[in-house]
Amino acid sequence: MRFSLLLDGVFWGVLLIILGLCAIFKTIFHINISLFRIGFALLIIYIGLSMLFKESPWRAERNTVLFDNRVLVLEEEDEYNVIFGRGLFDLTTLPSDNGARRITLNVVFGEGVIKIKRDAPLTIKVNSVFSGARLPDGNRITMGEYIYRSGEKTENKERVLVEVNVVFGSLVFNEE
Asked: Which domain holds residue 20?
């Protein structure tokens, strides 16, 4: 049995027993123990232990980073999010025979690093609000919109549109 599974069951069982004992003490012995404070404190302890001994408790989807640090390899999804964390978006793995495709990357209160190939036919539209976005051509954006084009469009390769929204975060591009 994994420790994280044990921690989940044990934690919730102990929490319910403690809250039940506090209710009994209050009713029978007239000892007033704050149920809300104890419950809130134990919940914070549980979240801390969960973060130490198992994966992030907020990992909801494969395409979302929440309070975590992860590499996101772009596959079939069209939208990827980094919220209160750090995410590395790897655009170098996009198939070269890719048709017209639109990918949305959102960075909110976090840090995003986008890895691209220098010759890949990409159109990158960066929307920035109170953030720092450093593009491969040396431009920096803190507020507003900027469009960057890399590679050349040929007859068998169409450009991939990558729309990046950065809000109260930072964004950096790494070219190979």
From this structure: 3-53
